[in-house]
Amino acid sequence: MSPCDPPPRSEGRAKPGGQGAEPGPSAGAEPGDAPDAGEPRPEPGPAGTKPEPSRRRRFADLAQRTVWGLAVAAVAGAAVALGGWVLAGFAALVSALMAWEIRRMSAPGPFGAAGLLACLAGILACLVTQAVEWRWGVLAAALALAGAAALARREPAFNRLPFLGGAAYVALASSALVGLRDDPLYGASAVVWVALSVVATDVGAYFVGRAAGGPKLWPSVSPGKTWSGLAGGVVAAAAVGAGFSAFTTGTLVHEVAGVSAVMAVVAQAGDLGESALKRRFGVKDSSRLIPGHGGLLDRLDGLLAAGLVAAAVTFMRGKSVFIW
Length: 324
Known about the structure:
By secondary structure, this protein is mostly helical. The protein has two domains: 78-182, no CATH class; 186-324, no CATH class. The protein contains nine helices and four strands; from the N terminus they run ββααααααββααα. It has helices spanning 55-82, 84-106, 112-131, 134-152, 160-181, 187-212, 227-247, 253-281, 296-317, and strands at 12-14, 21-23, 216-218, 222-226. The strands form two sheets. The protein has a two-stranded antiparallel ribbon with strand order 1-2. Strands 3-4 form a two-stranded antiparallel ribbon. Strand 1 (12-14) and strand 2 (21-23) form a beta hairpin. The radius of gyration is 26 Å and the shape is globular.
């Protein structure tokens, strides 16, 4: 070998004293993978940490989340606008899928008859509510869930109580939104108001929580949520509720603002409840049904809670919760 020839490539560099070899570049590495001589090497991060995703990857993830979020919002908005059996069918499908997510999280193995009955409970609750009244939809769901409870006893490794409680909650909340929309005068406005209050809560809580920080709401369940974020969400929901009331009915702005603030607290409670359920089951997302977002439960947790409370108050008062 002449002095001008490059040295042979080896898989490692010999240590002083012939104590072995240090790891070198892998056989499949490209010449440009390693920094040139004289360039500073990047400082190694703490042990066990993952490298930060590239800007291009983060942008692609954001684009995916945005596209799918807008698509889901458009379909849901169309269903709410049309109302009637269109919304009832859409809510029945969504309720069944959320029950599937709960069954999937609660136990490994085949889906089973108990899971099918849990899905049927949500479907019956929504369709019977549209056909008759919410209370009859609740009764139909209860009968289906009673069968699911009996069958779940036969399946091993089954978290029965969280499964049945989650399925009942999903069926009740989904059908409650159907009943809330069924009001011919203020149904559509009430559902849109609930949805906007929940969105405003999430946005306000996110930005205020990131900016202000502070004590955590429930660190063992949701480490990212803070009391300052909750306060920001309450203020944002109150402002959006007041604005929505001013542009729709034009009256009782202060009352609707106060109720919107209450809806913000309820929505955050629903979010925390779903996080606690996932902690119980040891999963990060309820499913991967919505690319970039996770599952339906992950996106609708706050809306389910706020819609259930709004509908219950409406049915007890005999007039829309949107009107005071």
